[in-house]
Write a structure and sequence with these properties.
CATH topology of the largest domain in chain A: FAD/NAD(P)-binding domain
Helix content of chain A: 25-40%
Number of helices of chain A: 13
Number of domains of chain A: 3
Oligomer: homodimer
Strand order of the largest sheet of chain A: 3-2-1-7-18
CATH class of the largest domain in chain A: Alpha Beta
Radius of gyration of chain A: 24 Å
CATH superfamily of the largest domain in chain A: FAD/NAD(P)-binding domain
Largest interface: A-B, 73 and 73 residues
Number of strands of chain A: 25
Structural class of chain A: alpha/beta
Distance between the termini of chain A: 63 Å
Strand content of chain A: 25-35%
Chain lengths: ~475, ~475
Amino acid sequence: MTDTFVVIGGDAAGMSAASKAKRDDPDLEVDVFETGEWVSYGACGLPYYVKGEIQSLEALVSVTPEEFREERDIDLRTGHEVVGIDPDERTVTVERVADGTTLEQAYDHLLLATGAEAVVPSIEGTDLEGVYTLGSMSDGKELREYVARAREKESFQQPDRGPACRYLEDCAGRVAVVGGGYVGIEMAEALAANAFEVTLFQRGERPLTGFSEATSEAVADHLRERDVDVRLGTEVRELVAGEDSETVAAIVTADERVPVEMVLLGTGVRPRTALAEDAGIDIGPTGAIATDAYRETNVPDVYAAGDCAEATHTVTGEPVYAPLALTANRHGRAVGQTVAGTPSEGGTVAGTAAVKAFEVEAARTGILDHAEGREAGFDPVTETIDANSRAGYYPEGGTVTVTLTADRETGRLLGASLVSEYGEGAVHRSHAIVAALEESATVFDLENYDLAYAPPFNSTWDSVLVAAKVLAGNLR
Amino acid sequence: MTDTFVVIGGDAAGMSAASKAKRDDPDLEVDVFETGEWVSYGACGLPYYVKGEIQSLEALVSVTPEEFREERDIDLRTGHEVVGIDPDERTVTVERVADGTTLEQAYDHLLLATGAEAVVPSIEGTDLEGVYTLGSMSDGKELREYVARAREKESFQQPDRGPACRYLEDCAGRVAVVGGGYVGIEMAEALAANAFEVTLFQRGERPLTGFSEATSEAVADHLRERDVDVRLGTEVRELVAGEDSETVAAIVTADERVPVEMVLLGTGVRPRTALAEDAGIDIGPTGAIATDAYRETNVPDVYAAGDCAEATHTVTGEPVYAPLALTANRHGRAVGQTVAGTPSEGGTVAGTAAVKAFEVEAARTGILDHAEGREAGFDPVTETIDANSRAGYYPEGGTVTVTLTADRETGRLLGASLVSEYGEGAVHRSHAIVAALEESATVFDLENYDLAYAPPFNSTWDSVLVAAKVLAGNLR
């Protein structure tokens, strides 16, 4: 008798699981229910679509619904929302979005891959016209349409728009980005590249709070160089409508009222857990669905992976919520393997992330925050160094700034943050440190790694090794 | 009583050792004897000096003799050649190059950092005018002067010089590079960029024989695109003089006689071991000076590091001769630390190397050759994959080709070779695999590494992870 694997959600985790399970066990029946129309898309590419560097939303789709159905033999139903799970009966209730009709579907294995949703801050005015988030393909579409519409206006094209425009009540093209995380920064770039006057509001004292201070500063400086007005330590209190009472016209902080015609909320995401909670599936300390190392929930044969689920931190071994694309792909794939008969863990999560901000690139991994490190039982020590991105004498190089954190007692590496000009390798260099974290290596190990060297790529000691040498020296 | 640390050789290994020893133990007397006039220089930068991208030899010097003497309090004597070691008396005999006078110098600790010398193949004609090697600063100087001289000739500047020029007896600017290793390839670029007609002769069936076949092919293809005439499987039999009987005029292979006005021999290096051998210091199986993990030779308190000495291979644990800059720096520094009182190993050598060839970059590490792997007790399996260097939809990306080798039984990673367009990250991505090799990780570990991802830097699964997934799949 054929087993049925039901997947709820058709993006990275869901489609990775479905594809892998079907590939490893072609006899398995694999059914995927997706509420929307898009599946298997790269949401990380949306800012570049809004910016205009990618010409169609379809380009962000890695595998189309037709390919899943016809080539991979997966029963993918878009426009179908799972509205209930009955773990005792091992069935899900599915509602067809188009007409509200429902159906019951039995499962032997079930994966919750319901993803995350944008957090909308609890302030007045977030429901006004002109207020956007960026989480879904339709968000991307709306934002791109907004950009096109705004740029067509005569007032937008007037030659007297300039650096002072954003302070003028009657100037077109003034926009606000709320939040200095990846989405906020990538959208600031996307909008500024389209000649908008961008003000970025960040509640904390620096953007990219999960990165090192040196990285945050480099990014903030660069945003300002590119004419983004970065307001740090600035909490947004309210969004205010204009004369029509419907469209946003200003953003209000403790100190001032800044006229804007559009607001992009980049204030984080939260896991979609309602369906799991209703079915009695445990939620973990991070607020996401709790799982074991195989992504199985407290309910047997029910798995959770991707942006709706917790993972295990590479360094601390504790639950962590890190809703990023690679984790979703990796854990989805592992669930597919497990369901097809080969139990697979799919690895831990180091909290690694990368971002490009105009012509700067940055990456972070592991634990950088000392309080967080202490809580996990470490005694964190941090060093930050600047090194040449290429040999000092080699043309056109820049600087790589590397922040490295290790445990004082053991020298064990805890985390890192790197920043350089775009193309000078901060992100790819971070790979070495991720590998070191994965293998519980120490800073004394790292300083002796035989990393590749040639003048067009680094100094004899790559910046990563320089950081390790300096930090190791402090611990001896 | 103050100890004396004598260092023979003033380049990477020697000066790293001297500086580190003096820094860690300021009471130590540190004496460095260097035959030539240059110390602490980046020989790896010489091709770019010849190319014209670096304007002075001085730019290649990281620390000047004056800085060593005045700021670091090191007794550095250039123009002084050590001609004998008496291990029983613990003295060295030093000859002043200028006048041939000698002196005796006592030591408590001695480091041989005598480096390597270019191998000149045993064929006729290598002593002709117009035949060069590239190992030392003076080699670099001569080559740059040759380039300038050749380009000034009227015949070089004639408009009818073109792709066919290299086949014409009377055409200026035809040059040959013998050897398809790093130096050969970097010099082919340097000369072609100066409008020479370059023919590259490689005895083996592919350039960069230590890299994977896929890497070699990509580099050979690119050299040809850049109009370098790459002759593979072609052994040079003789260099022939012109009418003056003094200057090279042709290069002779089994099949033909190719007119050239200059020949660059990039046929490898060999360790300078004569001084060690005379003093009864053991030479290892690779032909370089044998040492223990602390770079100490069989003679107590006599160390050897850098291009004259063996190292221990990261993967096999066997002696290896890998004369590269980082090893010299790292092991020199470790000897300095040891001499100053903190015994330090300075790590193993994975045989990691990087090279740029025009607009292509490549790196290799570990063991790729299956015969070599089997000899070390492994059962090597290799996979090669192509992946996007950035997200497929992101502008201006290219391809990264990753070759990965692991042991069939255990999955342990053995080696890798990567190639991409310059700037697309093959070299910096190799760092992750070096780290994995250093930690004896398996391909099953690597496929789950939480490497940084964002669309401007990779696909969700970085090319390194794609290679690991494919190879791991084959081993399951």
